[in-house]
Amino acid sequence: MASTLRSSAAARRIFAAAKPTTSAIRLLPQTRVAAFHASQRNQILPPGPQVVHGTVNDPVPVPTPSASHGSYHWAFERIIALGMIPLTVAPFAAGTANPALDAALGTALVLHSHIGFDACVTDYFPKRQYAKTRALMVWLLRASTITAAVGLFSIQTNDVGLTEAIKRFWRA
């Protein structure tokens, strides 16, 4: 028994001598390494508010169905998009300037652009997270749509017309 005490005491002395002291260890600065990132991630917009209204057990509010925001809206978008094909080709194929076709093409361009940018505003600026920014973007879109419509009307009435203006830009 005395030999085991001597050997365990000796083992403790050996292990204690083998352990380095903390003063002898030089800690190297640690750097974070990410596999596929070359730079720091920068947020364009600050993160949205992290707020839960009610409790987590409340059901998700379902908006009331409306055909003007659903099937009718989708059908109107498709009619405008399909109608732009003959309106774009017909004036150039006929070779004559027709003010009625120019007016229809200008109206379709403005409507198509407004609907497309409105979808972008709806997708990228949710009402519940960015209410003020979304309202600003909607008003900027409305102002831009009116400006574009007035500009196309001015080209149509005071200048050579939309089709002839496009032909001149194309040849320039």
From TrEMBL:
SUPFAM superfamilies: Fumarate reductase respiratory complex transmembrane subunits. Its main location: mitochondrion. It comes from the Eukaryota. The chain crosses the membrane at residues 136-155. A ubiquinone binds at residue 124. Heme b binds at residue 112. The keyword Methyltransferase does not apply. Keywords: Iron, Membrane, Metal-binding, Mitochondrion, Mitochondrion inner membrane, Transit peptide, Transmembrane, Transmembrane helix, Transport. One of its GO terms (molecular function) is heme binding. Pfam families: CybS. It is found in: Mitochondrion inner membrane. Gene3D superfamilies: Fumarate reductase/succinate dehydrogenase, transmembrane subunit (1.20.1300.10). GO terms for cellular component: membrane protein complex; mitochondrial inner membrane. InterPro entries: CybS, SQR/QFR_C/D. The keyword Iron applies. One of its GO terms (biological process) is mitochondrial electron transport, succinate to ubiquinone. It is a multi-pass membrane protein. Belongs to the CybS family. This is Succinate dehydrogenase [ubiquinone] cytochrome b small subunit. It comes from Arthrobotrys musiformis.
